[in-house]
UniProtKB/TrEMBL annotation:
The lineage of its organism: Bacteria, Pseudomonadati, Chlorobiota, Chlorobiia, Chlorobiales. Belongs to the histidinol dehydrogenase family. Catalyzes the sequential NAD-dependent oxidations of L-histidinol to L-histidinaldehyde and then to L-histidine. The gene is hisD. NCBIfam families: hisD. HAMAP family: HisD (MF_01024). PANTHER family: HISTIDINE BIOSYNTHESIS TRIFUNCTIONAL PROTEIN (PTHR21256:SF2), HISTIDINOL DEHYDROGENASE HDH (PTHR21256). This is Histidinol dehydrogenase. NAD(+) binds at Y126, Q188, N211. The keyword Cell membrane does not apply. Binds 1 zinc ion per subunit. It catalyses: L-histidinol + 2 NAD(+) + H2O = L-histidine + 2 NADH + 3 H(+). Substrate binds at S234, Q256, H259, H325, D358, E412, H417.
Length: 428
């Protein structure tokens, strides 16, 4: 199930095994393009048709009523409500530290320059449904939007064949103060909020994970709206030295592998003994997991244990992978951290398991996948604001610099640009 690689001898084979990229087959492309075009043309009727086709329901109401949300909240287990509230406060507190401020400064002679930060007006946050419900995704997407000051925060999530939305998601929506909850998903949901329909408002940004149809739909509507990223299957890399607990390593690999057969879980270690023990434990323990078959598929296709000559090489390998989640099961994680350049989130030490970050700690769990941690960042407050440059020039400063600016425009062959400056110079 888990193959052990020697990095010194099998570098090429290992990297080929773990390299991932965002790609969509032609069949998915054709389906998504057809749905987007149909929703753009037919609006609500197309949304209803696809919701009936894919979710088995043609809901009379597109939205979950406030009464339904209040009922779900009142009926929820108090312990569940409590942990949602505590987790949401942790997430909001973390994101409060991210908030950027507008700034202005004087350059002299009446020149004022600056940047103004303003929140987006409307955003839609997609929460996956179907086989599982993800209230954690709702909290993680809503918190930075609310901290940013977004005026209207909507959530959409697929309903079941009876037109019902997961009660757990509704409780999370109440905790997070979501403005409106819609009950359809898939590519049709992305299209509806990107283009706007009679009953669905057009938004400025769409965020949140989904299946390959949702991911491709987000990619295709970029430009009509902003998006966060193109999310791929979940992934974890565990760097383990000889002090690591193999059971912790195995369970954290299982935690990612149980998401999806396409999920990836890799252990990098400088200890042959740890590598062998991780492989043995994984094979012995997988049968005890409820989602054993999914875990087996994921580890066989996208799992690995790789042995490196030392910790420095282990960090180099991890940087090449640029994982979504990186766990440091090492004696001194803070001494290793400076060597880590590319990761969506880093979990420090054996007791900082990725599950804590998924649900409770505070940093966002919407992270770059498929190696995009080399250039993408976790979802943050900065995803829900925009930045506007402010330029205020005086006549005195233009008198000093105007002819040089006009000459710059002359060199680009843009006469009107140059003459716009010179017209003012003639008046000052």
């Amino acid at each position: 199930m888990l193959r052990i690689f020697s990095y010194a001898d099998e570098e090429s084979a290992f990297m080929s095994h773990v390299t991932r990229s965002v790609s969509f087959d032609a069949g998915v492309q054709n389906v998504v393009d057809g749905i987007l075009a149909d929703v753009a043309a037919r609006g609500d009727e197309a949304v209803l048709d696809y919701t009936e086709k894919f979710q088995g329901c043609r809901p009379e109401a597109f939205e979950v009523s406030s009464e339904e949300i209040d009922t779900a909240f009142a009926a929820a287990d108090p312990g569940f409500r409590s942990v949602l509230e505590e987790a949401y406060e942790n997430i909001r507190e973390f994101h409060r530290h991210e908030a950027d401020k507008s700034f202005f400064y004087e350059q002299g002679d009446g020149v004022i320059l600056g940047q103004r930060v303003t929140p987006l007006e409307r955003v839609m946050l997609y929460v996956p449904g179907g086989k599982a419900a993800y209230p954690s995704s709702l909290l993680m997407n809503v918190a930075p939007a609310k901290v940013a000051g977004v005026s209207e925060v909507y959530v959409t999530t697929p309903c079941d064949a009876e037109g019902k939305v997961s009660e757990h998601v509704l409780v999370a929506a109440k905790v997070a103060g979501v403005d409106r909850v819609f009950k359809f998903g898939g590519a049709q949901a992305i299209a509806a909020f990107a283009f706007g329909t009679e009953r669905v408002p057009k938004v400025d940004k769409i965020t949140g994970p989904g299946n390959k149809y949702v991911a491709l739909a987000k990619k295709q509507v970029f430009g009509h709206v902003s998006i966060d990223s193109i999310a791929g299957p979940s992934e974890v890399v565990v760097i383990a030295d000889r002090t690591a607990d193999p059971e912790f390593v195995v369970m954290d690999m299982f935690a990612q592998a149980e998401h999806d057969p396409d999920a990836a879980a890799v252990c990098i270690t400088d200890s042959v003994e740890v590598a062998v023990k991780v492989k043995e434990l994984a094979e012995a323990m997988v049968g005890k997991m409820v989602r054993a078959e999914v875990i087996r598929q994921a580890l066989a296709s996208n799992g690995a244990v790789v042995v490196t000559k030392d910790m420095a090489t282990a960090c180099e390998v991890s940087n090449r992978i640029a994982p979504e989640h990186l766990e440091l099961h090492v004696a001194e994680p803070w001494s290793v951290l400076p060597s880590i350049r590319h990761a969506g989130a880093v979990f420090m030490g054996s007791y900082s398991c990725e599950t804590i970050g998924d649900y409770f700690a505070g940093p966002n769990h919407t992270l770059p996948t498929n190696g995009t941690a080399r250039f993408f960042s976790p979802l943050s407050v900065r995803d829900f604001v925009k930045y506007t440059s402010i330029i205020s020039y005086s006549a005195g400063e233009l008198r000093k610099t105007g002819e040089r600016i006009a000459a710059f425009a002359d060199h680009e062959g843009l006469q009107a640009h140059a003459e716009a400056v010179r017209a003012r110079l003639r008046k000052v």
